[in-house]
Amino acid sequence: PMYYSQVRIDPSNSDRIYVLGGSLMVSDDAGRTFRSDGATQIHVDHHALWINPKDPDHLILGSDGGIAGSWDGTGHWRMFDNVALGQFYTISYDMRDPYYVCGGLQDNDAWCGPSNTRSFHGIRNQDWYETTYGDGFWTVVDPIDSTIVFSESQNGNMNRYDLITGEKTAMRPITGPRAEGDTTKAYRFNWNSPLLISKHDPSTIYLGANYLMRSRDRGMTWEEVGGMDLTKNIDRDTLAIMDVPGSEPQMSIHDGISTYGNLTTVNESPITSGEIWAGTDDGNVQVTMDDGTTWENVVGNIPGLPERTYVSRVAPSAHAQGRAYATFDGHRNGDFAPYVFVTEDFGQSWSAIATGLPDGWSVNVIAEHHRSPDLLFVGNEIGVYVSIDRGQNWTRIKSNLPVVPVDDLAIHPRENDLIVGTHGRSAWILADVTPLEHLSTELLNEPGQLFPQKPVTMWAQKGDWPFYGATYSASNPPRGALIRYYLSDDQNEGDLAENSAANESENEGPISDSAEFSLTIENARGEHIRTLTTPSLAGINEVVWDWRYDAPYETDEAPNEGGGGFGGGPPQGPIVLPGTYTVALDVGAQSYSTTVEIAADPRRLMANEDRMARQETLMSLHTLAKPIYEATEAMERLKNQLTEASNLISEHEELPEALTAELEVIEDDLSSIESELRTVRNNAGIADDIQASSTLPTSDQLWQVDEAWDTMPNLLEQLNELILNRLPTFYQMLDSEGVRPHPGDAIVLPSRRGRR
Questions:
Q1: Which one, 158, 376, 517, 734, has the greatest CB density within 10 A?
Q2: Quick one: pLDDT band at residue 558, thresholds 50, 70, 90?
Q3: Cα separation of 577 and 600, whole Å?
């Protein structure tokens, strides 16, 4: 097929030739003979090869399995398994918490993996599990039993996978039971056959061939929905490829397409049971309102759509009966225009809604938000676009999403996350699209706004063996509450696309100096918890509140993980108790607020009275942290001053011995205080240990807390005596003996030259 056909010649040895295909073919005699063992240790189907011009034994090979390198001219290969290069055809999710993302990968099976792990190391390759072999396509999880997954490989080869036992029940329907004597009847399955679970009955499964197949018992028995071929049923031998008819000899028969005339997309109305939409690779858009008894092909009602344009997606609305969206991909016919349409009357009429989508890039998928009827997303060959006015205008979402084909989109109904399946850079998640859900012209005219917060759980995390070498690890979502807020730009009003969260985050700068800005957290009793240091840029901003109180004191150190300020990094306040917290945004004279619900890790059972007692201990350490820090800083100042005094004394002869003696006594006393303070810091530094466990503090930990508090009064009394009395008296003694820092030499001003 056209996706091979790559030939490479060694730049330093013209007899060495590589031909890429299912195997890596190698010739050492200028093509007279070839061997097929060029890459026997890695994934087959090779498409790209780089030869190091300075070292021809160094090769980098791109295949259906990813990237591999050889340093001995194909003798041995190493696969680079730490690069996110997955080619997802489809994407879906389950309803666990955290939810899992599922999808099919090109020639790499179908997989499911967590959107969040309980590990410090993030989401790694080993956290995923495989659900079917071959080229992976649609992978959908039973909405009421996440241990049951329906997956498929190429040409409709689907199975039901049991996550508990690992069993796979093959269940692709065959024509025999429904042939009724017709020996010519055949089911034609697309390479990527549509597969879905009914939105109205989780026992009902749909699979698209040229007929729409339905099982009402999770795949054990099948029926044809309406009993009719929903395609144009064209003999593809009559179709030309590059002006060569299919009936004539071709270099690549049908260009690698296994079948033609089959369903490419199927969807049920979320509102109306029995309303089903289907699209085909030969350009039909079929709809039934009576559960398949009758079908109507409504593609002829779509204005400006070329004949036989591949239907990439049909998506009936969750908000209005009769409304449905359809996208089309014409690149197989040399047509790269963006085709996106909407109907409000079950397909009897259609309107184009592609304004703002770039020409030259086919559209693969459209997704409607489940709560906001105006919020739409599309995926095309370069990324994701969003509309907040039901397709009247589109804006590209960039941020850190690479330029890559987007083949599928899904919105998790509970988490409100946009899940993006790319064909080349694996799966991505845009966490909680609530800001996009609430964007409007009216909101953008406000000085600011806080977006609603979804509930969060304070999941605990654990570590494990970190040294796995070259393995991929994606970051977990940040531990905390995502606070999103909007700030206007008084000096540059702009338009919706420029100011929305869907732009490229190219904010011009901070809001005007005259507008005072603050973002604070209070508990349910109205007590101050935290003042967040946040960006104040025009547009949509985000800050992660890590559930902590204000730091007990301020330093110049940058924040990082751990420490609590007791010698292990910048200070941190303790984590708050589970409950309801109010987030307040003040912009000038305007105030906005919202609440966030914080829940404890459900795996960490702890009685409320124990939780309160532990929190009381943590808060007492939080209170103690500031005087400990101030005492430590004072100690350092005094030590530096005494060092300077000692140096001054050493520069003078015949000073009274009482000066030197007093200096030694003060130094000894200061050293004793420093040693005591070090013990106090160690005792008070157990806050992180207490915070890390869902139990009461141990008796030893409570002893350490008491010991720190009991020691500090006398320690501060001694330290303050040095600061307020003993050191000033000592400095007076020095001064009376003329021992004082040298102020330096006088500065001489030279005469000015050339002045008349």
A1: 158
A2: low
A3: 8
